[in-house]
Amino acid sequence: VYLESSANPARKTRYDLVAAEKGGLLINMDAQAPNKVFGEWAAAGNFLPDLTAIRPEFTWEDSRFDFLLEDAQGKIFVEVKGVTLEEDGEVRFPDAPTERGVKHLRGLQRAVEQGHRAAVFFVIQMKGPARFRPNDATHPEFGAALRRAADAGVEILALECVVEPGRLTVGRRIPVRL
């Protein structure tokens, strides 16, 4: 494991877990990293080439989405999910039940039904997976909500990351299997 020391005396623990090695695979474990790396990647025009605005933590109706992006076509609501669960070259989300995740998917689906654009980005915190799937074994309701959102027009994308000590960067898109 890779740990980072904190000098903050008010913390309950002295260290943060930032990465773990699994076989020869380095997996970023920082829960804050997916939003940061997605924000930088999107701001560089990698998702919307004519991006005009990017706002984090955007509230719409009863949901707070990770990002609101804007381009010439209008707004797109974006939710980012960090993925650290890998088995035999396949990555899955969630690694634990997430009612909040289901709520976000329902909010994105409502947004599309009301004429907005919406997307979920699964930021894979490692390099090399062959594909992404929802983890129906751990949380079947999340998998069902993800498929309903996709059927309604929410874009579902998965981005692998190149993980190096002290650095996380977006790599390639990987296939999503719903």
What does this structure look like?
The chain has 178 residues and is α/β, with parallel strands linked by helices. It is 22% helix and 45% strand. The chain is built from three helices and twelve strands, in the order βββαβββββαββαββ. The strands form three sheets. Strands 4-5-6-9-11-12 form a six-stranded mixed beta sheet. A hairpin with a 2-residue loop joins strand 4 and strand 5. Helix 2 runs parallel beside helix 3. The longest helix has 15 residues. The radius of gyration is 16 Å and the shape is globular. 33% of the residues are buried. The model has no long low-confidence stretch (mean pLDDT 95).
Helix content: 10-25%
Terminal Cα separation, in Å? 31 Å
Across the major sheet, the strand order is: 4-5-6-9-11-12
What's the number of helices? Answer: 3
Structural class: alpha/beta
Number of strands: 12
Mean pLDDT: 95
Radius of gyration: 16 Å
Provide the succession of SSEs.
Answer: EEEHEEEEEHEEHEE
Strand percent estimate: 35-45%
Low-confidence parts lasting 5 or more residues at pLDDT below 50? Answer: none
- Shape descriptor: globular
**Biggest pleated-sheet summary:** 6 strands, mixed
